[in-house]
Amino acid sequence: MKNKLFIILVIITIISMFSFMTGGCKIAEEETPIVESETVSGITLISIEEVFEIIKNNEDYIILDVRTQEEYGEGHIGSVVLIPVDELEGRLDELPEDKPIIVYCKAGVRSNTAASILIENGFTQVYDMSGGILEWIDKGYPVIVTGSNETADNSYNNSDVISVSVDDSYEFYKSGDYIFIDVRSQGEYDSGHIKGAIHIPVLEIELRLNDLLKDKAIVVYCNGSGCERSGRAAIILVSNGFDQVYDMAGLGVIEWEQKGYPMEK
Fold this sequence. Notes:
- It contains ten helices and 14 strands.
- The protein has helices at 2-31, 37-41, 48-56, 69-74, 109-120, 132-138, 166-175, 186-191, 229-239, 252-258, and strands at 43-46, 62-65, 81-82, 101-104, 126-129, 144-145, 150-151, 162-164, 178-182, 193-194, 198-199, 217-221, 245-248, 263-264.
- Helix 4 links the parallel strand 2 and strand 3 (81-82).
- The radius of gyration is 28 Å and the shape is globular.
- The N and C termini lie far apart (96 Å).
């Protein structure tokens, strides 16, 4: 009888030890830190097709090219801000924190780095364009070559576009003889624009040429430095027979507002 009791106690002890060890493993597993893909995750991948639709529909996104100036000049997506990834941390104040930002580079490595920098500095709506501009070109979407001002669909000559300072633009404005065209997105225009300016997003300008008088001088503007939309719009106008076209340089409407010139929402 004693032997039986001894055997039973041994079995119970073994079972208890096994249960304890198993439970211990589970606890250890539960306490092991899990890699938070969401932390790196604040970065959302976005397809080439989605980016094209966003641009085509003039949705209120910032498109950020983080390649070098040379790469940008060889070909870039229209209506973008250029800030090379190596300069990004020192130029964060040039980007609005309340707008979604799509980042792209050549193939996706630098854009991922740039997106991480943005997330770490409080930007909450950050998208990394998968495949970069190489895939964009492979799919046949248009790019702008700064050196020759050519796109995949059109060839323009910008020799007749006159760059004009914000102060000179204000003198034009006071004369009342110039049409001011805001070529930014609807959201940017609604948040604040030059008083009396006509809103024609750059992607619509070729479709709305009949809305403009060719015998009237025109000043086109966007956000100035890093925003090439006004230059592109000016080239389109000149190429379609408008011979008095001015591209407002400097910091564009940002500088205009800083100087206290007339604005409205």
